[in-house]
Amino acid sequence: MSTDVLITAYGAVPDGKTIATAAIQRAIDVAQAAGGGRVIVPKGVFRSGSIFLAQDVELHIADGATLLGSIDINDYPKRITRIEGHFEPWRMALINAQELDHVRVTAAGGTIDGNGLLFWAAFWQRRKENPKCTNLEVERPRMFFIDRCRNVQLADLKLRDSGFWNVHLYRCRDVIIEHLDIFSPGTVPVRAPSTDGIDVDSCQDVVIRHCNISVDDDCIALKGSKGPLADKDADSPPVDNVLIEDCTFGDGHGVVTVGSEASTVRNVTVRNCTVKGKNNLVRLKLRPDTPQLYENLTYENIKVAGTGRVFDIKPWTQFFDLQGHAPPTRTVRNVTVRNVTGDYGSLGTIHGNKDDVIEQITLVDIDLKVASGDFDLGPVKNLTAANVKVNGKPFDPNTATTRPAAAPIEILPDWLNDKI
Asked: pLDDT, tens digit, for every residue of 340-360?
C-alpha cells in the first residue's frame, strides 16, 4: 500500500538556507522501502542538491512549496553522465531518475527553482575571458535528468531559473510531459545560457502538451549524438514518434530545434500551438561533420505573434570536428507546415551545406503578415505551396530568392552561432 511521506519528518527545514538533500533522499528511500508512495515537499522553501528518485516513488511539490537548488556546485555530485551527445564526468541534476519504470514528479501550485543566477554569471565571466570556451567549461546543474526510464510523467510543475537544461530525457520511452510552466530570463538580470526547456535525447514515444515555455535557448530540442560516426552510435538511437500539442512558446531560439547534436529524428508532430516573442518555428541544425536524417516533421494549426522565422534550416558549425573522416551526408525530407496564421518576422531560411538533400517541403493554408518578405531559399527539391498568403499576396515559391549551397565552412564561436 502506498503512503505519503513528508520530507520534514526526516529533518528538512523550510528556511531556504539549510541544505535538505539528505532529508529528502531519506524520505525517498523510506517510501521505496514501504512499497512505494509519495514524497511530499510541503509549504516553505527547501534548499537541496542532487536527489535521486526511486522505483514507485512520486515526488510531489505541494501548494506554496519551493524546491530550491543549491548554489554550491559540490552539492551536485560529479559522475559519468550523458551530456551534449556523449558521456563524461559532469555534474548531476537537481532531480535525477535512472533506469526506472514508472517515474512521477507532480505539483499542486509548487515550484522547482534552479537558483541559476550565479551559475549563469560564472559562465558569462568565463566566456568574457575566453570567447571560444565550450558550453561545458563552466559546470552548471540541470534541473532534471531522466535517464533510461520508461513510463515517465512530469505534470503541473512550475520550473524557474535552471542552471543549465531544464528537463533532459535520455533514452526514455513512453513519456508524458504536461502542464509545465518553464521560464528562464533572456536579459534581466542576466541571460540564462543553455537553459533549454525540454531536451528529448535519443527517446521514443514522447508526448509534450499544455506547456508554457520561454527560455534563453531552445524551448524544445530533439537530440542525439554528433560527429562523423554518430549514426553508428549504439548509445544514441533515433528520436522517434514525438507529439507536441496545445503549448504556448514565448522567447527562445527555436520552438522545436533539431540538434545541436542529432543524427536521426523522425515522425514529429507539432500542433495546436501558439508562438510569441522572438522564436523560430522550424529550426533544423545541419552539421557538416555529422550524418543526419530528419524526416516526417509536421507543424500544423500554429498561431504566431512575434519576430521569429517560420523556417530556420541552415548549417550549424558549432565545435565542428570531422575527426579525420570524410564529410558525411545529410537529408531533410517530408516537412509539412500547415495552417499557420498571424504576425511574424519572415518566412526565414532553408539553406543546407554543400551536397545536403532537402526535399518535399510543403506549405499549406498559411496566412502571415511578416516584417520582411525575404525568403532565403537554397537548393530544395519539391517545394510546394497551396493557399499561402504573405502580406495579403499569394506566395509563389518559384519567385523566392535562391542562392547556391553554403560556402565553405566558417567556424564561429558558439555565442555567435547561437544568435537568432
From this structure: 999 999 999 999 998 999 999
Q: Can you read off the three cell numbers belonging to residue 3?
A: 503512503
Q: Which domain holds residue 119?
A: 3-417
The grid coordinates listed for 25 are 533522499
For the chain, give the number of residues. Answer: 420
Report the DSSP beta bridge partners of residue 45. 15, 66
- What is the full DSSP assignment across 361-407? EEEEEEEEEES---EEE-S-EEEEEEEEEETTEE--GGGS-B-PSPP
Picking from 326, 89, 355, the residue whose alpha carbon sits closest to that of residue 227 is 326
Whole-prediction pTM value? 0.95
For residue 87, pLDDT beyond 70: yes
Report CA 128 to chain centroid distance, whole Å: 25
310: enclosing H helix or E strand: strand 309-315
Q: CB-hemisphere CA count at 13 Å for 327?
A: 13
Rounded average pLDDT over 252-273: 96
CA 98 – CA 170 distance, rounded (Å): 10
CA within 13 Å, CB half, 188: 0
Dist CA 313 CA 303 (whole Å): 20
Please, which residues bridge with residue 326 across strands? none
Residue 34 and residue 58 in contact, taking contact as beta carbons nearer than 8 Å: no
CA distance 183 to 252: 10
pLDDT tens digits, one per residue of 398-419: 776 655 554 434 333 343 344 3
Name the strand (E) or helix (H) holding 373.
none
Give the span between the Cα atoms of 159 and 152, in whole angstroms: 17
Q: How many domains does the chain have?
A: 1
Q: Phi, psi at residue 57, to the nearest 5°? A: -115, 120
Angle at 124 between CA 120 and CA 126, to 5 degrees: 115
Three cell numbers written together for 68: 530550491
pLDDT at 82: 97
What is the CATH number for 320? 2.160.20.10
Alpha helices (H) along 35-192? 117-129
